[in-house]
Amino acid sequence: MLGLSALDLARIQFAFTMSFHILFPAITIGMASYLAVLELCWLRSGRQVFVDLYHFWLKIFAVTFGMGVVSGIVMAYQIGTNWSYLSEFAGSILGPILSYEVLTAFFLEAGFLGVMLFGWNRVGPALHVVATCMVAIGTLISSTWILAANSWMQTPQGYAIENGRMVPADWLAIVFNPSFPYRLVHMVIAAYLTTALLVGASAAWHLLRGRDNPAVRKMMSMAMWMLLLVAPVQAVVGDFHGLNTLKHQPAKLAAMEGHWQNHPGEAVPLLLFGIPDMEEERTRYALGIPYLGSIILTHTLDGQVPALKDFPRDQRPNSLIVFWSFRLMVGLGLLMIALGAWSLFLRRGGRLFANRLFLRFALWMGPAGLVAILAGWVTTEVGRQPWVVYGVLRTADAVSPHGAVALGLTLALFVAAYLFVFGAGTGYVLRMIRKGPQHFELARPPEGGPGEERTPMRPMSAADVQNDDNTNDGADAGPERS
Predict the structure, then answer these.
(1) Rounded to 5 degrees, what angle do the CA atoms 220, 193, 110 make?
(2) Would strands 282-289 and 387-389 be described as parallel, antiparallel, or unpaired?
(3) In angstroms, rounded to a whole number, what is the distance separating the alpha carbons of residues 246 and 298?
(4) How far apart are CA 133 and CA 147, in angstroms?
(5) 289 located within any domain
(6) Structural domain includes residue 38
(7) H or E segment at 35?
(8) Is residue 405 part of a domain?
(9) DSSP 8-state secondary structure symbol assigned to residue 441
């Protein structure tokens, strides 16, 4: 089909479903924490604006959460159908890790999600904020297990091979594999930045249309504070993650840098632009900054890193894809830092909500977090090729024995179904965002008495009797005595 092999189609199909799925958890991870912050702010301050924002974003969170669950189930089934040899070879390790995610995160989220969505007027404020916090913690636990499984496939350890299959030898080593801490922190921060950009973009959209109100202003202010504080931290975490990749996946880092060959005593430049050519084994039209690659990667002026020619041809990732996906992610990260810094400058002059050029920039940066996450995952997954379990199991050996026609047909069906289902869901979310935050009426305490929501514990307290200072308690309860 179109010259693509069954392996190519299986990889494209999984990449397509994975790309759709990762967007929704990224939003819900950040959104759940944002909702918890909003409700805690309301409990602390009692300000109506936090209630309005909470209920506005709660609806969006609910729709996004549902789409994330549906897309995740499809992806889990696809591992069994298209990658059966991976399941057979490494299932005794990957299976339990994914089961732990269900037993901890999913049950926690499911247990408190109903209270969070429908319990505002049915439980007390303290219990409701606990439910919101539990859902937020559940999303973080979920990401922990998923990143543990994927990171183990990137940097496997703690296993043994018995009878041609991988079996666990040390669960702590498996879960806390070398790349896990960096990738977990990197992904969680990316989810927070994604949420901040979406919230900021929605506020900018309303401000550009003259809908200037306290709720919209609060959205913009909170989003820009998050961006200002967290985007630089993400850059530092990314640097540590890159050093970890240099140590454990040097071929991936060489592909990211478009670095083909070392020369004795020559520093490594940082390439800003270029077109890596896998056939000619060089990066055409290379434009780089001398010494900067060595400074960033080795923290020395003349340090060298492994080059692509140090690895056999059949063990090199596709540098053209990895080179540009990495630069897309980094470029968007720099724009996020710039947006946060600009917001601080405007905030000091009292122009944060009025500068139209800034608001347009914030609006256009709305999907930047999602695009950066996709670019980061492309870098990660394409960069580990040709391995599905790095250094142990090749991708070509993990795929199920399906024909290209069957895989091409199911890929087409997936594309059509996803565009219809998730396109409709995304359109619904955008309509809710365009509507904007609405005033949410706080329910008054229920009236007591017969037929009311609250039945009093003392029957006589239901009587509608008003005493005043001039009436003696019980004096008029019976007939007048002479």
Answers:
(1) 100
(2) unpaired
(3) 9
(4) 21
(5) yes
(6) no
(7) helix 6-45
(8) no
(9) P
* Residue 468 token pair: 């005043």
Run of H or E including 393: strand 393-394
Specify whether the CB–CB gap between 391 and 156 falls below 8 A.
yes
Regarding pTM above 0.85, the answer is yes
Residues forming a β-bridge with 448? 454
Q: How far apart are CA 462 and CA 387, in angstroms?
A: 73
Cβ partners under 8 Å of residue 196, min gap 6: 30, 222, 223, 224, 226, 227, 230, 369
Q: Which two tokens stand for residue 190?
A: 């990316």
Name residue, tokens 């009587």: 463
Tokens representing 96 are 């339990």
Using the Cα atoms of residue 423, residue 424, residue 427 and residue 433 in order, give the sign of their dihedral. negative
First to last CA, the chain: 108
Residue 380's closest CA among 145, 98, 183? 183
Tally of domains within the chain: 1
DSSP letters spanning 400-429: ----HHHHHHHHHHHHHHHHHHHHHHHHHH
The two most distant CA atoms of the chain are separated, in Å, by: 120
Contacts 24+ apart (CB under 8 A), 121-126: 121/443, 125/43, 126/43
**Lookup result for tokens 């509608």:** 464
* Cα dihedral 470→475→479→482 (10° resolution): -90
Spell 230-245 as b/e; 16+ CB within 10 A means b: bbeebeebbeebbbbb
Q: What is the pLDDT along the chain (482 residues), one digit of tens a residue?
A: 566 888 889 899 988 888 888 889 899 999 999 999 999 999 899 899 999 999 999 999 999 998 888 888 888 788 888 888 998 999 999 999 988 988 888 888 888 998 998 988 888 889 999 999 999 999 999 999 999 999 999 999 999 999 989 999 999 999 999 999 999 999 999 999 999 999 999 999 999 998 889 999 999 999 999 999 999 999 999 999 999 999 999 999 999 999 999 888 888 899 999 999 999 999 999 899 998 988 988 888 888 889 999 999 999 999 999 999 999 999 999 999 999 999 999 998 889 999 999 999 999 999 999 999 999 999 999 999 999 999 999 999 999 888 889 888 988 998 898 889 888 988 999 999 998 888 777 765 555 555 554 444 444 444 444 444 444 444 444 433 33
* Domain-located, residue 83: no
Q: In terms of residue numbers, what domain contains 360?
A: 188-395
